[in-house]
Amino acid sequence: MAVENFSLDVPQIETIEPEQECIPEKHFYAKVINSRIHPTVRRLLYASNEELATHYCTMHPQADRLELLRVMNTSSKWYRWAGADLIRTVNLENQERMVVIEMNSCPSGNKSVPFVDWGYEGYRRVMENAFVPILISDKTLPSGSLAVLYDVMKQRKESYAYALMLAKLTKEQVYLVNVGFQPQLPDYMRWSPEGVCQLEVKPGEWLDVRALFRYVTRKPWLKLPLLSKTMIMNPVIACLAGGRNKLVAAKAYKQFNEIHAGAGLKINVPYTLTDVTKKGIMEHAEEMNHQMVVKVPYSNCGVGVYTITCKEELQRFFDAGHTYDKYIVQSIISHPSWKRSGCPNQLFHIGCCPQFEPNNRYVADLRFMITAGPNGWMPVAIYCRRAPEPLTANCPPGRSWDMLGTNLSIGSDGTRGTDTSRLILVDEESFPDMAIGYDELVECYVQTVLAASAIDQQCQRLMSDRQHFDLRLFMQLDDDQTFIDEVARGCSRIFEQDFGKNGCSDGTDRDQQQTPTSEHVNSAPMVPSTV
């Protein structure tokens, strides 16, 4: 197993200057630096939305091209940087489809894209199209510096590259800040009563931050306010509305599919049950023949995902001592010879056959990163991953995750490192292992755009403008009181304002930190960047 760990001795706050040199070894995995993008992937990354929509509708004639193109070319209001994990599946009718497993509001990816003919283009696309235009167009931002935040050392490669690209595009100094993996803010970061992020760059010297790019993955609602004067990308609303909330995301997908059914557009997901209690998990396990996946809605890096194929694995979920009230249950995507779940439209893995082991088939997924600029969505980065063990007709009891789990993160909390031996590059050498062609890549892009658009529409339903958050609607979408209490600790102003009219329980825990009096999450219209 090739493990990349990230135990670097670096300052908590680093200063990134515009003239700093771009050193690939600091921003990319070693194995990608001398690799070239597969021509099929290159074709997709440089294709226009018009080309991609036309190709998709040729393969899916039921889809309305004009409506698809409208969705593609609509700039996202809140969720401007997104990543989907997709799996290639087949059902009992032998219909193949790319299925969205989950979305991410801080997606990794650029450090895994072949460098030779792509370089820093992925980092540039995110900053140049989604972040910098807001700096130019929004005249309500406070004065201050720019910052990039991260909370896990393994994310520093990409965070550093985003900070460097931002510095070069704006010709400004950018602060790269490690906010730590603990749930509370570090001593050197705070939020002013007006909702401005502040950093202690030197002892006793605090600087305001007018805009920040955040790569904060662990419970970001505990460190970042829901409403702030400092512009945050992605804002916390993008997490709560589905980017880091699988429960609410499932409802966003369902609503999107209902609205767009007439246009033949559909987000493909496994059969999903939401708002499932622990008692309900036990009941569904019996109904689904112990062939299901249980997900903690608010986790990432593969943490909180339990593949259940026997009573032993079900007990493992309960032994973990989870504290939330509601969970997601999905029909498992498995081998055709495994027991059936009995769920509608059961799906099975197509997988990949790696060159080093061509007689075995492995479960594999594809990460697709996109970003939203002034003119709509565009592709940014793609990489693939495989499971540790090959998928076989017989699953050893208690070992299903070894065959089905593709996440590369190491450790119980996903922070100890990355198993790069299972990373499949989209280069000329490795990408053929996936047996994915241009048709499937276009489907992946469309599925990612549809899912991200669904979540952004959910964001807009919850936060219609920069001053108001619909707490009542949020609690209808996610009535997990334990999670509500957790969000209240980090976003207490919302709960203090709306406590009475939204019917929060007396148990809602509102924290004692300073809370802004005139906050907003930036939603200014974006204009093309001239930087």
From TrEMBL:
Residues 502-531 are annotated as: Disordered. This is ATP-grasp domain-containing protein. It comes from the Eukaryota.
